[in-house]
Design brief:
The structure is a homodimer. The first copy, chain A, is an alpha+beta fold. Chain A is built from 14 helices and 30 strands. In chain A, helix 12 links the parallel strand 26 and strand 27. The first copy, chain A, is globular.
């Protein structure tokens, strides 16, 4: 296909769009690939749509290669199935809800586990029908609280979602592995630098789950890696608890007066000044910080929750969100504290010398008390005394208090040990491109998907769920490849692999541009020809913004039989004889 | 591509689905091509999706062939643009409305004139940029009051919509003609028997408009044709008014006592019995029937409207709906009549001997009075007298009453003259497959789409709007080709052009099926192989239901080197030597 820029529906913009947070968003808009229609909702212009369709083709090919069969579900769905799995409620404000003219509740599908489960239930009845993998490339909807970064987090977006159906866990493992390998092929073909990390299952339920993250400084996800090969989304990191300490070795509790200290740092300074230890100075890591949240369940009921964690660590909001999902925790407000006068801010403790414990099952106020995994039996802490201006030292877990549970949501730090002992963690950021889940029987049970097994008994089917962000991939590739001059597509995704810039007013130049374009087109290479009446400067700048990988400049040199070949990716420029141009282009495309 | 029925995600059903109104719906569900997800909302299973994708490809190719450029808009759209063109209101209950988490009003796009207009306004500024045609293949939403017939009238459906932008009417004519020709190619390639008929522009506004109807007994649309080539959707038929008659020749008005007549037929009988005419008997066509409607505007305001039409014709509800759109007319109820005690049901008249006129601008009750186009000046009628049990004869249009306007909504009958004098009309039914409109400047004006013209002056752009029902086409082709045994696809749309049925338990049969399939696949022919352990009867019945055009049966005859080739379309069966099978299949596919 040959397109002429004079008639192509595209205009480059000189200025960044409002609220362009990341380069991919800025350049996709400035290059005329997409346009914002509403917050988090974009229209695809011809160039952008071509890239999107190429991503779709790659995804489709790799899904078909593992035997997955393509189907297509509606986006507008009835409430009932989502009611049966409780997601109608759990999705909360993230769900776009619609009431039809007859008053029926409907929704715009954020993901389709329910519909796939019911469809398989409708058609299949025997273990002989399995295994089965179905996929669709479809438009999804989530009413994000903070749509951002253009296509990276939108409210209407294209996903490939697939679902596997197996009679047993072995089958599920095989289906999961097949998808995992297909995803590796997909993201490799997209040219993305990606990592596979352990992930939280989140609202999807289920057990084993991994994410494919495109490494990107502007990514929303933080992940960790160790030298020994551990990799996890930071939300999924499960701290390996230290060994329990012998309780007998622990010191006795003692009151420490801590007036005017204000912060944990203040308490630590006071301890070092007035209660210095012989072996090592006090640090924040010796203190047990107790923070209180109000937890709101999907049904709207609320309850307080207190968390004890080492005083030198903050709570990671995303890890907290992921751990409690679908419930939502917010830090106690002044108003919340007013309802619990026993909670003395700055001095809260799971233990009190005078017996007025305010946290945990045996406490006065019966606030559920959970601790960081580092708070194992025998560890000794300085913590509040439930008395103003007093702390307690020598507070020993398992002796002086017993927590109601463990909640692993403290920040993960560069240098923290990997939970599998594979070395210190480094942190990096990424864009979630794919997610694979072993759902297990959760949806099949809720929706009663059973088939007859080898023994003629009804057996609940076990499922996997697998997603690729198709429209997001367009932005992720742009993010990874763009530079300060514009977009820069890999050959396999470029709307046109070749962009011919014809400069000047000499008709011979335009004729030669058309001739070379025709020759390339005959070889199956799509070409964009800048045939406009514009200055060379405008044309060169547009070529860089539009981002086709190979740029051929035909201008004055043509009189001497010369044209210039530019590699948009490396910036390399070479003069070549016009007769060698097509061969040189093919060579560059193949590189 | 080769697929085996043993693993293909499809199950044929023995029984018709509930509420299967038309054969295409019945068979698409029974053959496992689609499944209902909600009223008027369908999921596409693998076989159905393949047909849909083939239709999409044909449409895309023909749109690109006329230089239209593909884009893709969101389905979830902001309210504002639709507010500016008043369609937010005019669409009424047909629009799916959504309120997002921030309280913003949104909608699921029923059609995208607004968004396209705004996008072109965003990018283009000069007549030099024009002409431009853009298209998308996209999911649309209309909350139909009566979704029916499966894919034929759904609430979520796939459409190709395109829009042309031109600087002047000549340009619009050219763009319209290009689309018209592309549509002829599309529907020809789909193998549909179609007619192009004059159409109403309806809610789209604009002037010239034609519909492409697939001729189908179960179609929702009624259209007319004349021997001389006139063709129109029945809603668009504009009756050619007869010549006005000299008023001087008209008889004087006279009171006719019509007690106990009840109906128009009763009045006619009485006239023939008591006031017989010498030249010809009285008929219903001599009477002027006055019917009253309550008209509700999109903003909810209501007003009465009276229509005078020949007593032998009914009002055609669809013609009335189309003529008044976006307002809606409902016949006066008993309650409505109570509010207008002057209106004596059965005796309503636009004229009264005693001066108590109840219809028309000069009437007592000031009800707007419109007439059928046949009621021209000088025509003479028998109509009500606004007095119980009395009619008036000799009532002459233009002398005794003057209507406030013309409303052409009476039923069109087989044998009525074509308005262009091209002979008597015949009526038939069809499925609306495509619609092309000359919108003109309506949307460009509402949304202020102007470009600089040749003289440097801002000029409102003139637009066309063109739609193809893509998912509907799947049903229309099924409707045209299915028989009492199942589906029967044309080669170009079949999910697999060839269906190989391997019967019996002989492994050699299955091996030969696989070998022939591989040979066809190598030639680029997709093949479905029935490799299941099922009886020949089950397999033959399924092959007929599934509807691939060419069926190759491999069974016992293989031992003697024979296979059977069946043409699903004609029912023809031929034994061929196994070595000739591939050549025979190719020959049959090319037929």
């Amino acid at each position: 296909m040959i397109s002429n820029l004079s008639s192509l529906f595209v205009r480059t913009l000189r200025d960044d769009p409002a609220a362009a947070e990341v380069p991919s968003h800025r350049w996709l808009v400035r290059a005329g690939y997409i346009r914002r229609a509403a917050p988090g909702i974009y229209s695809w212009l011809p160039l952008g749509l071509k890239v999107l369709q190429k991503v779709e083709s790659i995804v489709r090919e790799e899904m078909e290669a593992i035997g997955a069969q393509e189907v297509h579900f509606p986006a507008l769905l009835p409430r009932e199935p989502y009611e049966q799995t409780n997601r109608w409620t759990e999705y909360g404000d993230n769900l776009f809800r619609v009431v039809d003219r007859k008053g029926a509740d409907m929704l715009l599908g954020p993901t389709h586990e329910e519909m796939f489960t019911l469809l398989v239930k409708d058609l299949y009845s025997s273990y002989k029908d399995l295994p089965l993998s179905l996929f669709q490339i479809q438009t999804k909807y989530r009413d994000e609280a903070r749509p951002r970064a253009g296509l990276l987090r939108g409210r209407e977006f294209v996903m490939k979602d697939s679902y596997s159906f197996d009679i047993d866990q072995d089958g599920l493992e095989a289906s999961y592995q097949a998808h995992r390998e297909a995803y590796i092929k997909i993201f490799t073909r997209l040219g993305l630098d990606f990592v596979i990390v352990a992930a939280m299952a989140g609202a999807m339920g289920g057990s084993r789950s991994e994410e494919f993250l495109a490494v990107a400084a502007n990514g929303e996800d933080t992940f960790v890696r160790s030298p020994g090969g551990y990799a996890a989304n930071v939300e999924a990191v499960r701290v390996a608890p230290p060994a329990a300490q012998p309780i007998e070795a622990a010191p006795a509790m003692a009151i420490v007066a801590t007036p005017d200290t204000g912060t944990i740092a203040g308490v630590v300074d006071l301890l070092n000044a007035e209660h210095a230890r012989a072996d090592r100075p006090w640090t924040g890591a010796d203190t047990l910080k107790n923070v209180v949240f109000l937890v709101t369940a999907p049904d709207g009921t609320t309850s307080p929750l207190a968390l004890g964690l080492p005083g030198d660590r903050e709570v990671d909001a995303k890890r907290l969100e992921a751990a409690l999902e679908p419930s939502v925790a917010t830090p106690f407000t002044a108003e919340d504290f007013e309802r619990y006068p026993d909670l003395l801010v700055g001095f809260i403790s799971p233990v009190s010398l005078d017996g007025t414990r305010v946290l945990g099952e045996e406490s006065v106020t019966k606030i559920r008390y959970v601790v960081d995994p580092r708070v194992v039996d025998g560890t000794v802490w300085v913590t509040g005394a439930n008395v103003v201006d007093e702390h307690l030292s020598g507070v020993t877990a398992g002796r002086d208090f017993v927590a109601d549970g463990v909640l692993d949501v403290a920040e993960v730090r560069e240098g923290d040990p990997a939970p599998d002992g594979s070395g210190p963690l480094t942190l990096a950021r990424g864009i979630e491109m794919g997610h694979i889940f072993q759902l297990g029987k959760k949806y099949a049970e809720s929706l009663d998907l059973k088939v007859l097994d080898q023994n003629g008994k009804l057996q609940v089917v076990t499922m996997g769920s697998y997603g690729v962000g198709v429209s997001r991939a367009v932005a992720a590739v742009a993010e990874a490849t763009c530079d300060d001059k514009g977009l820069c597509w890999p050959v396999g995704l470029a709307p046109y692999p070749v962009h011919i810039v014809a400069t000047g007013k000499d008709q011979a130049v335009f004729d030669e541009a058309a001739r070379i374009a025709a020759e390339l087109d005959a070889e199956g290479v799509d070409v964009l020809v800048d045939d406009r009446k514009a200055s060379p400067g405008v044309k060169f700048a547009d070529a860089e913004i539009l981002g086709m990988p190979v740029i051929l400049v035909i201008g004055r040199g043509l009189a001497e039989g010369k044209v210039e070949l530019r590699d948009r990716r490396t910036g390399e420029r070479n003069e070549v004889a016009v007769g060698d141009a097509v061969a040189a282009i093919s060579e560059l495309l193949a590189r």
